[in-house]
Amino acid sequence: MRYPDEGGLTGVQRAQRERVRFQAAEMFAAGLKPPQVARALRVSRKSAYAWHAGWREAGMDALRSKGPSGVASRMQPSWRAWLAGALDEGPAAHGWVEDQRWTLARISVLVARRFHVRFSRPQLSRILREMGFSVQVPVHRAAERDEKQVARWREETWARVERR
Questions:
Q1: pLDDT in tens, the chain (164 residues)
Q2: Which residues form a coiled coil (predicted)?
């Protein structure tokens, strides 16, 4: 089993990996050797040998997930709920009236004003993705754009040019 390119695992992925390790422990208890377990579970031999050594020393507890790696985020669940509501209100409700777009810089200022904590832009972007928000680039169109003329051009002019 390979780790994703981006690094960390979700809770579901960690649970799946733990189930695989527990399967390996059952196979070790049944008398199978690490190379046989590796083949059966489609994992590396190195992992199977490491699991076997841990299982021999400490049993199933050695194969339990140790939880997410890294430092826990300072962004608390209650803060996330507040931030989601604030983003739904729009930038104008928080003092940005020149345009109605949320940027990472603006969201960072919003969070800093409310919670007195600064997050880097990449970290804030990750938090927003975890919350279900996605990057959206606004479509820039001329104010003078006439949709009827555009449709007519596509049907008539573009159709002639495309035939050539």
A1: 334 444 567 788 889 999 999 999 999 999 999 999 999 999 999 999 999 999 999 999 999 988 777 777 888 889 999 999 999 999 999 999 888 889 999 999 999 999 999 999 999 998 999 888 888 776 777 778 888 998 999 888 888 887 76
A2: none
Centroid of chain to Cα 56: 36
Residue-range domain boundaries for the chain: 11-63, 77-130
Alpha carbons 49 and 57: distance in angstroms, whole number: 12
CATH fold, domain 11-63, is Arc Repressor Mutant, subunit A (1.10.10)
Sheet strands (E) in 15-92: none
